[in-house]
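Subject: design request, 144 residues
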């Protein structure tokens, strides 16, 4: 049975953020509540969620910057793993991006996360010959 995947609402924030924590996706330098709120606030992004019998079982944050489509925070509740939910979420994310005209889907995976790398490669994503560079734009005490 294909899970129902739909855009998250603001009321979903606590459950989605708890899922991200449970899946080890959060880092001290990223505020998941701000990430969630910003994704829902902007028309070019969303958080897609899957609901199961026990509540929220999966999520994927999607965004289109006008050049590339991006997927972040793909999360499947530990009890729902290996059920096809991750594949269903990626399919829904890809559909969301196609509907907005994104020519390419990209995502970032930490180099030591071999399980995630294997999942994405099995889904048909290929490693890209790029280096990701970045810096934080907010200065101490500033809010974005």
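Subject: RE: design request

Done. Sequence follows.
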């Amino acid at each position: 049975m294909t899970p129902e995947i739909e855009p998250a609402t603001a009321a979903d924030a606590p459950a989605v953020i708890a899922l991200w924590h449970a899946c080890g996706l959060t880092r001290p330098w990223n505020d998941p509540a701000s990430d969630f709120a910003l994704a829902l606030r902007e028309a070019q992004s969303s958080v897609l969620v899957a609901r199961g019998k026990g509540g929220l079982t999966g999520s994927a944050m999607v965004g289109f910057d006008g050049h590339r489509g991006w997927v972040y925070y793909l999360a499947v509740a530990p009890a729902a793993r290996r059920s096809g939910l991750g594949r269903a979420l990626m399919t829904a994310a890809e559909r969301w991006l196609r509907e907005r005209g994104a020519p390419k889907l990209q995502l970032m995976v930490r180099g030591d996360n071999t399980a995630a790398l294997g999942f994405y490669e099995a889904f048909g994503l290929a490693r890209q010959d790029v280096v990701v560079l970045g810096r934080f734009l907010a200065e101490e005490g500033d809010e974005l």
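The beta strands are 5-7, 45-52, 55-64, 69-76, 105-107.
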